[in-house]
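Journal club prep — side note

Before the paper discussion, L.F. wants everyone to see what a predicted structure for a comparable chain looks like in C-alpha cell form. Sequence:
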Amino acid sequence: MSALIPSLNWLRVFEASARHQSFARAGKELNMSAAAVSQQVLALETHLGRALFERAANRISLTAEGSDFLPTVQVSLGAIESKAASIFGKQRVERVTLLASQLMAMSWLPRVLAEFERENPSIRVDLMMEGTQRKTEPDLVIRFGEEPHLVRHPNWLMGMSHVVMCRKEDAPKITDLESLLSFRLFDVISHAMGWTALLTHNFGPMQGRNLRLEPVDTTPLALMMVSQGLGIAIGHVPVCGPLAASLNLGVCSFVPKTPGPGNYYLEQSVNRPGRAATLLLERALQAAAQTSMRAPLR
C-alpha cells in the first residue's frame, strides 16, 4: 500500500457511507449516485488492501478494520473543515471602518453598531476614536461642527441639546438656582456652551454668582465624576444618553433642555471607493439618530 491516500474525496465518501450505513443515502448527501459511491469506497479499500464494509443485499456494515479507521477519518475531516472555516471563512465578512469622537464611540454608537451587525451578519464595523494612532483611513467619519448651516448638510446625522446630568438621587435636591450652585460644576473645556453660557441663557447674567467650575477634558470624564457624587455636568443629548444611563445618571429637570450649537454629520472618504456596505451603515446610523432624537428624556 502507498503511504499517501490519493483522494481526500475517498475519505469523505467512506465517512458518509459509514455514518448512513448505506451507499444510496451517502450518495444523496454527497450528490452522487449509489454506484459512484460504491466505486470510490472500493477504490479506497483496494488502496488500503483491506475491506472496510461487509456487503449484503440492500445493506452494508463496517468491518472491524472499518470501525477502527472511522474515528480517525472523522476527526481528521472535522479538523480540516474547522481550520478552513477559521482561516478562509473570514474572507466572507466585509469590514467597514468608522471614525467618531470619543463621546460618540463610548456612548451612542456601541448599541447602534451591535444592532447593525445583527441585521447584517456579513458586515463588521471597525470603530476608531478621534486621535487614534492607527494609520487606517476610515470608510466613514462622523464629523461635528458648530456652524449653523450644517443642519442642512446632505448627510446630516443629528443636532444636540444641552441638559444638566446628575445622580438620580440628587435630582430632587436641585429645585432652584441656589441649590444647583451648591454643587461643583464640571465644565468641559472644549465645549462652546459651558456652564456660564447655559445658566446665562436660562437664568440671566451670572455676575456676582459663585460658580464652582471644575474644568475637565471630556464629557465621558465629566459624567464619570458625576456618577461618583463629585458634582454635576452638562450632557449633550441624545449622544450622551446611553453612557449616562449606564452610569445611572438622570436629567435635572430644573434646567430646561436647551438647544445648542453643534451638529453631527457623515462624511465618506474621498480616497476609498464607495461600497454598498458603507451605504448600509450610513443609512442605519441616520435611522438610529432619528429614533434617538424622538426618544423622551429620562
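L.F.'s comment for the group: The domain at 8-89 is CATH 1.10.10.10 (Arc Repressor Mutant, subunit A). Keep this in mind when we get to the figures.
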